UniProtKB/TrEMBL annotation:
GO terms for molecular function: isomerase activity. It comes from Sandaracinus amylolyticus. The keyword Isomerase applies. The keyword Glycosyltransferase does not apply. Keywords: Isomerase. Residues 10-112 form the SnoaL-like domain. InterPro entries: NTF2-like_dom_sf (IPR032710), SnoaL-like (IPR037401). This is Putative isomerase. It comes from the Bacteria. Signal peptide: none annotated.
Length: 122
């Protein structure tokens, strides 16, 4: 993947966490994730788009109005990328969470996401 493609994929990935309309979020999931993608972080191990989307939906329900944004540069090579993100309500000065994700891509989609939380809500 070119760096431009990686940047687009990462931004679309973050938008899957922000999109609250189920139909639009489902379309994003189909564009971003491989059908058999795996997502893991300290709170969940989800396999397949449906399980990952259920987890994202649960996070949105627990933290309404929180938006995920890229924080810093994306570092990528050999179908892998790493990046830091922040999650905060619109207009907030301080994030409620800061995380670091490492992703493996395959055929332009995310195959595996491994998330680390640097700061998280209590």
């Amino acid at each position: 993947m070119t760096m431009t493609n990686v940047e687009t994929l990462v931004r679309d990935y973050l938008e899957t966490w922000n999109e609250t309309d189920p139909a639009r979020r489902r379309a994003l999931f189909e564009r971003v994730y491989a059908a058999d993608a795996v997502y893991v972080d300290p709170h969940v191990a989800a396999e397949g788009r449906e399980q990952i989307e259920q987890f994202v939906s649960a996070v949105q329900a627990r933290y309404p109005g929180v938006r995920f944004t890229l924080h810093g540069a994306i570092d990528a090579h050999h179908d892998q990328a790493r990046f830091t993100w922040r999650a905060a309500p619109e207009g907030a000065r301080e994030p409620v969470a800061i995380g670091f994700d490492v992703v493996v891509t395959e055929q332009g989609r995310m195959k595996r996401v491994c998330g680390f939380l640097d700061e998280q809500p209590g």
